[in-house]
Amino acid sequence: MRCPKDSCEALRCNQLLDEAEKLIDNQGVVSFRFAQIAKQAECSTNTLYKYFESKEDVLVCLFLRNTTSSRIPVFISENPQFNIQQLSVLPILFTFEVVKRSPIFNILRVVSINSMFWQLASSEKIEILRHRVNLFWSCIRAPIEEAVAQGELMATEMDIKELVQSLYFFLAGATSSYESRLMDECYFTPDDETGFRHISRLMNRYAWKTPITQEMMCDMVVRISEFLDRGEGKVRTCETCLATGKRHDCRG
């Protein structure tokens, strides 16, 4: 039920989460049983209950350690040349690339933020989840506010709120549709070029001094892919999760 207090506890907690992720890989998020985690990790159920109250707690923690909000600041620090237009579309592009590489992440995202699910988790996990969801919203909003402050975007407070919501809702719908694989191509085309067109149209409805272009986004996706290929984005630990929880936005 509680987060680890030291490195030894963090090691055990991560081991349990690793085994849970393997179970999801093999059985799916619905079918695996809570008690199986302890068996797979070769520990007692008492040890399992030390960190997790229920299956819902485990799934929330798996989502938390995979969130893009813990990786975006590292990527930004490696690319200080990005202008405010690039930073404004970064959270959307970065999340798309992670979803392409990790179907589990997208499943966990959809399940974890469902109110019928997260309300069954322990109060501590709910509070961390709530903070992380709002942290990602800040990843989208903060650069747009900065663009206004720099004079690169002419927008009112209402414009900012509408744009942030439009980007977030587009991301949520597109990633869910991409992973489901149920829609015919006449309804949904899951390619980068189509996604870039949607994003640029959403962004350029507002008065940017320099428009958001598909070419710019294509270059960014190449950089994001290289970053993820190198593995810096694969560090999924309790320490990283807890450090992320101390931030107020994705800029670190």
TrEMBL record:
Limits of the HTH tetR-type domain = 10-70
What Pfam families does the annotation carry?
TetR_N (PF00440)
The Swiss-Prot or TrEMBL record marks DNA binding at 33-52
Record carries keyword DNA-binding: yes
SUPFAM superfamilies per record? Homeodomain-like
**Which keywords accompany this UniProt record?**
DNA-binding
Q: Where are the transmembrane segments?
A: none
What InterPro entries does the database record attribute to this sequence? Homeodomain-like_sf, HTH_TetR
- Record protein name field: TetR family transcriptional regulator
Query: Which species expresses this protein natively?
Result: Shewanella colwelliana
